[in-house]
Amino acid sequence: MSKKLSEKQKLFRNYYINTFNATESAIKAGFSKKTAYAIGHNQLKKVEIKKYLKEISKPLLEELKFNRNEIIVTLTKIARGQVQDYEIKYDKQGNLKFKIVKDLVSNRLQALEILGKILGLFEEKPTQTFDKVVIKYTPVSYESSK
Questions:
Q1: Could you tell me which of 41, 53, 95, 128 has the fewest CB atoms within 10 Å of its CB?
Q2: What secondary structure does DSSP assign to 97-144, as a single string?
Q3: Cα(83)–Cα(71) distance, integer angstroms
Q4: pLDDT tens across 82-140, in order?
């Protein structure tokens, strides 16, 4: 049995469709700014919201002619630094000039994160947690023994 969404949850999903930013969408929907990150993350896990987002994005993906494989291939190229952005400008004489924009590591990391999520490579909860790590240091003597 599916649960009904609250008004805040409906607002959240509608804002999320436009921003694709869970924290911002949670704040705009009226959730607390202090807990917006966690709330946004949790809202995206809800079956009703996931189903709605999938339904709403399906016609857009069909219209854009994107499919899952094409998205994965493109993200893989970005993650490997095989896709470059260009800045297009005209010089003072009116000639068209192309300049390669710096390859940003943050773009590559973001592409890897998205790929990992799509492919289900990340677990929701870590399998191991550590309260503290103790490193034991044993000095090594390099003096020759007689």
A1: 128
A2: EEEEPP--HHHHHHHHHHHHHHTT-S-SS-S---S-----------SP
A3: 13
A4: 776 666 677 777 766 766 666 666 777 787 888 777 777 766 555 555 566 566 666 66
Containing 68, the helix (H) or strand (E) segment is helix 68-79
Q: Which of these ranges, 36-45, 48-57, 66-75, has the smallest mean pLDDT?
A: 66-75
Whole-prediction pTM? 0.46
72, burial (CB in 10 Å: exposed 0-12, middle 13-18, buried 19+): middle
Inter-CA distances, 1 with 4, 20, 50, 54, Å: 10, 27, 15, 19
Report pLDDT for 23. Answer: 93
**Cα 51 to the chain's mean position, in Å?**
19
Beta-carbon-side half-sphere exposure of residue 78 (alpha carbons within 13 Å): 19
**18 token code pair:** 């436009």
Residue owning tokens 């973001």: 110
Can you give the length of the chain in residues? 146
